[in-house]
Amino acid sequence: MSKKILLVVALVVLATVALAACAPAPTAVPPPPPPTTAPVQPTVAPAPPTTAPQPTAAPTKAPTAAPTAAPTVAPTAAPLNLGIVLVGPQNDHGWSEANWIAAQYVKTKMPNVNWIVIDKLNSADRPSTTLEQVVSDMASKGVKLVFTTSDDFKTDTITAAQKHPDMTFINVSGDSAWKAGNAYKRLANLGNFRGKVEYMKMVAGCSAALTTQTGKIGFLGPLINDETRRLADSAYLGAKYCWTTYLKKNPADLKFDVTWIGFWFNIPGVTLDPTKVANDFYNSGHDVVISGIDTTEALVTAGQRQAKGEKVYAVSYDFKNGCDEAPNACLGVPYFNWGPAYLKTVQSFVAGTWKPSWDWNAPDWSNLDNPDTGAVGFTFGAGLSAANKTTVQTFIKGLGDGSINLFQGPVVLQDGSSYVAAGQTATDKQIWYLPQLLQGMTGASSTK
User: Fold this and answer.
1) Closest-CA residue to 138 (of 109, 154, 160, 110)
2) Chosen domain end from 162, 195, 228
3) Is the same domain home to 232 and 319?
4) Does residue 28 belong to any structural domain of this protein?
5) What's the rounded Cα separation, in Å, for the pair 256 and 268?
6) 3 part of a folded domain
7) Where does 54-212 have alpha helices with state H?
8) Buried b (16+ CB within 10 A) or exposed e, 317-330
9) What pLDDT score does 76 carry?
C-alpha cells in the first residue's frame, strides 16, 4: 500500500514540473525611473512659506553648479587720494575754476577719487607757503599724483619732482617734459599737457573784429611770457584775418592794443588794476576788450557800461560759463576743457602705464564743445550778432579743415623782423616760443 502511495506522489510532482515549463514567462515589473538629477540644495535654508507651496515643473536641465548668493553691494575700489594746486581761487569763474571742474569731472568717472586741493597759492594770498610745503603735506596724506595748474609753478614743480621721486607730477600748461622744448628736464615723474587754445583765441579775435565799430580792440593781458605773447598774437591774427577777409577793410585801420597788468589776476598794490585798465580802454575809444587774465573784470566792466547805454563788449577767457557775469556784453569765451586730459592721466597712472609726455591737445573740430573729447572750445555770447556768429562759424570751419592757417607765413614780429617766411608754416616750437608781439600790435613784448 505504501509503495502505491509513493508512486502516485511521484507522478503528481512530475506533472507539476511539466506544466510550469510549458507556461509563458511572466512580464517583468519595471522599477520606478530614477530622477533626472538630484535637486540642488540651497546654501541657506529658505524662510518658511506663509502659504502652502505649489508644485513646480521639474527642471528640464540641471544647473552645472550650485548657485552662490550674489553680493548686495558691488565691491568698490580703494580710495585714491590725488592732489591739485591752484594759483587762484577755485571759484574764480576763470582759469582755476576750469581746472577744478576738470578734477570734479574725473570724480564723476572714478568715484573712488578723493581730491586734496589747495587754491590761491600765490605770493599775495599765501606769501609764506611754498609749493614744496604743499607737496610734502600732500605726501603725508598718501597722495602720489599731483597736478600743479599754472605756468607760475613751473620751476617749483621741477624742484618738487626731484625731491619726491616716488610721486608723479603734472605741471598743467608747462613744457618741462617736452624733449624738443627750451625748458626740457629729464625727469621720470614729470609731465605736461595743455589745450591748443590758440585756435580759440583766434576765434575771439575774429569775433572782436567783426563787432567793433571804432576799429579799436583792447587786449587785457596778465604777465608777459611765452604763453601770454602766444595767446595775444593768436587773438590779433584772428582779428586781422576777419577784418581783412570778411569785412574787406585795410589792416592798417585796425588798432590792437595790449596792456599787461603784471600777473594772472589782480593783486592790489602789486599789479595794475584790471578794472581800471578795462575802463581806460573803453574811455579811449576801444569798444571791445579781449581778456587774457584769469578773472572776469573786463566783462564785468563792459556789462556795467552797457547798463548805462554804451555799446561796448568784452571777450572773457578760460571758463566755459564765463559769459554768465554779463551775458549781453559778452561776445564769447575761448575756454579750456581740461577734463579729458585729467581723466586720461589719472587712468593711466592707476593702470601703471603713465609715462612722461608733453601733450598739446587739439580741439575736437567735429564737435567743438564735446565735454568728453575736446581740449578747448568756444562759447558764443549773446552780445555777438546772429550775422557775425554765422561768419565766425565759417571761420571756425576753415580753421578746422585746414583751409585757414594763420601761422603760415609771412609772420612779421613787432620790430619788423621776419619770423615765418612767406610760403612756410610755423613749427610748434616757433608758435610756442613766439618772442614778440606781432607787427600791427602795440604794447610791450617783454618786461625789459
Assistant:
1) 160
2) 195
3) yes
4) no
5) 26
6) no
7) 95-109, 131-140, 154-163, 198-211
8) bbbbebbbbbeebb
9) 52
